[in-house]
Amino acid sequence: MNLLSNPDLVWTHYKGGEAFDYPIDYSGAVLSARADGHIDLLFRWAPNSYCHFHRHLTTTTSTILAGELHVIDIEDGAEVGRKVRRAGEYAQKEPGDVHMEHGGGEGALVLFNLYAPDGRLSHVLAPDGSVMHTVMLDDVIKNGLT
User: Fold this and answer.
1) Do residues 112 and 71 touch, judged by C-beta distance below 8 A?
2) First to last CA, the chain
3) Which residue has the higher pLDDT, 9 or 26?
4) How far does Cα 61 stand from its chain's mean position?
5) pLDDT digit string (tens) for 31-73?
6) Of 8, 47, 54, 102, which one has the fewest beta carbons inside 10 Å?
7) 51 class by beta-carbon count within 10 Å (0-12 exposed, 13-18 middle, 19+ buried)
């Protein structure tokens, strides 16, 4: 499968709402999801746009395929670091990682690989850090990204 130009990928598009004071504009596609807890996802960000504030509940690896992904690490509600990941870079994060991500000036295309044996992938967080939604592996397998 060509990840850079595959017209058969089914993308779910996300936009921000009134509850968010930052521009949310990104899309995700499921490449592979298995009942044993392994899932591979492809996400793309519009230029200078964010995904939702979130916490990973599982070990997550990311490979930047195109553009730049800007990552803002958050602990106890405060920013504790920023990174810019460029095409070709790979990173692994342990469960509990809380952060914001946004595409650079040309956006970003990123491959994520997760292993969630308990079925919990991530928490979508409100600006105050409270949990708005838990993303579950079973929901992704049945319905695509939620």
Assistant:
1) no
2) 23
3) 26
4) 11
5) 998 888 999 999 999 999 999 999 999 999 999 999 999 999 9
6) 8
7) buried
* Residue matched to tokens 């395929």: 65
Tokens 């599982």 correspond to what residue? Answer: 58
Structure tokens at 92: 């692994």
Write the DSSP symbol of residue 35.
T
Please give the CATH topology (third level) of the domain spanning 12-143: Jelly Rolls (2.60.120)
Tokens 């499921």 belong to 30
DSSP at 52: -
Asked if residue 59 lies in contact with residue 117, where contact means CB atoms within 8 angstroms, the answer is no
126 φ/ψ angles, rounded to the nearest 5 degrees: -75, 165
Chain segment 20-30, per-residue pLDDT in tens: 788 999 999 99
Looking at the chain, how many residues does it have? 146
Tokens of 73: 């690490």
